[in-house]
Amino acid sequence: MSVFKVGKATITRIEETYQAIYPVKELFPACTDDILKHHGSWLPPHYDATSGKIKLSVHSWLLQIDGRKILIDCCCGNHKPRPQRPWWNMLNEPYLDRLAAAGARPDEIDLVMCTHLHHDHLGWNTMQRDGKWVPTFPNARYVFSKLDFDHFKKVDEDPKTTPAEFGTFKECVVPVVDAGKADLVTGPHKLNEFIDIEPAGGHSPGHFVFKVDAGGGIKAMLTGDVFHHLLQVYYPDWNFPKNSDAEQAKRSRRKVFDELASTGAMVFPGHVGAPFAGYIEKDGSNFRPRF
Ligand SMILES: [Zn+2]
Fold this sequence. Notes:
Elements (H helix, E strand, L loop, with lengths): L2 E4 L2 E15 H4 L5 H6 L8 E2 L4 E13 L2 E5 L22 H7 L9 E3 L12 E4 L2 E4 L5 E5 H12 L10 H11 L3 E4 L3 E2 L4 E5 L8 E6 L5 E6 L6 H4 L11 H18 L2 E4 L9 E5 L2 E5 L1
Parallel strand pairs: 5-6, 6-9, 9-10, 14-15
Antiparallel strand pairs: 1-2, 2-4, 3-4, 4-5, 7-8, 11-12, 12-13, 13-14, 16-17
Bound molecules: zinc ion.
């Protein structure tokens, strides 16, 4: 289990899966053998040289601060057919056991926050009970981006594009809203005394980053899918293929990297491999990770 102390906050990675998934040169067409060789010293936890595929982690972050238990992003979930994503098809992972081992039973979670409404960030929002999708975390408020909600609602209601996000919008977002447990937020928004929500759109229209003030000037930032891989720190214009607005995604990434470098905040991305969290530093006009 990866546990990070950041000021008065404890931030724990709750793993769902960690596997080599996408061929690096398909994902990032600008990537060359020379680039892979140049970065060879740190790449192994992030790249499987035998298959040529990048390794992606799917995890949540459990943020514990001032007695509160806050879950950020909710992975893919179990028992969901994903013929389009065979590596996440019909998962059967002991995710809730891992969450309990990290210090939180479902009924202890106060707040669930999704950086954006893609299927791999929503799965554990809900569970099936008596044939109905109900919130997994019965005592939690759920924070969703209103811009993303409006966007994926439209996608879901259009007969040409439904079901949005392989059905997870219907299964993992709508039941939470219908149960009156969702707060649809437009950023920037100060959520409470230690969390600020800021827009970082492009990967999805309403993608958020969550900034945590952990006391004494110590900061953390949970960045979801602003970047997926540490190669993108060196090459911020390399986009992950799935974006609502590719140019906006690049601008958001540079803006977030600039802020991480200037504030010294520890960064907790949504999919980066071991050790999963770290820092981003300025390197001339570019950036480099310190993970
Ligand atoms: Zn994702």
